[in-house]
Structures are given as C-alpha cells and as structure tokens.
C-alpha cells in the first residue's frame, strides 16, 4: 500500500476513535512522536496512547492535503474547532514505522476545556 492509502486508513480509523485499527497500522516497533509529547515506542504503547486520547477528548481529523514521496507521507489536517496540524509518516513494508506530529497542545487543551499545564 502507498503512504497515501495508509494515511487515508489512518484518518478513517481516527475519525471513528478506533484505537485498535489505528494501532494495527503501525509496525510492531514503530515510534509515534508528537511534538508536544515524548516519543511512544511500540504498537501496544501506541494503542494505549490513542485509547487514552479518545477517552480524553472528541477529536476529528479533516484532511486538507496528503502528499507522498517514496516511503514518506505527509498529512496536513484541521479539525472542526479550528486546530490545525501536520503529520509525517514513514511507511515501511505497508506499516507506519515512524510518525512525527506537529500541533499546538495549548490550543488543543483550551478548545477541549482540559486542564492547562502548571509549569
């Protein structure tokens, strides 16, 4: 599968809050590193991360653009509340091996009425 197809599956599962299907898109030893968080290593830890995230906030990903170049895919997205972000996906053997996400955590917390960091 192409990076674009994997990203499209990612968005579909994300919008259903289907953390099991999301996790299954990742390689066993994948790394998901969101800019506002530390890296999460391993499919099972990524599954737990998504499960917790979906329990914390209702999130929707609206695709603005998907770009691909060989093993790399880039997702530019927004959500219905106005938050915007970008994800870079390295796809190896049909699985996400590495993901790097960029978004504004402070805006996310405010938009979802979640507690702000104390430091």
Fold and architecture overview:
This protein has 119 residues and is an alpha+beta fold. The chain has 4 helices and 6 strands; from the N terminus they run H-H-E-E-H-E-E-E-E-H. Helix content is 34%, strand content 37%. A 6-stranded mixed sheet has the order 2-1-6-5-4-3. The radius of gyration is 14 Å and the shape is globular. The mean pLDDT is 91.
Give the tally of β-strands.
6
Number of helices: 4
Find the CATH topology: Nuclear Transport Factor 2, Chain: A
Second-tier CATH architecture: Roll
Class by helix and strand content?
A: alpha+beta
Order of helices and strands: HHEEHEEEEH
Major sheet summary line: 6 strands, mixed
In whole angstroms, the N-to-C terminal distance is 43 Å
Topology of this protein?
Blueprint (H helix, E strand, L loop, with lengths): L2 H13 L3 H6 L1 E9 L5 E2 L1 H14 L5 E8 L2 E7 L5 E9 L2 E9 L1 H7 L8
Parallel strand pairs: 1-6
Antiparallel strand pairs: 1-2, 3-4, 4-5, 5-6
Gist?
Helices cover 34% and strands 37% of the residues.
List key phrases describing it.
alpha+beta, 119 residues, SnoaL-like domain-containing protein, globular, 6 strands, NTF2-like_dom_sf, single chain, SnoaL-like, six-stranded mixed beta sheet, Nuclear Transport Factor 2, Chain: A
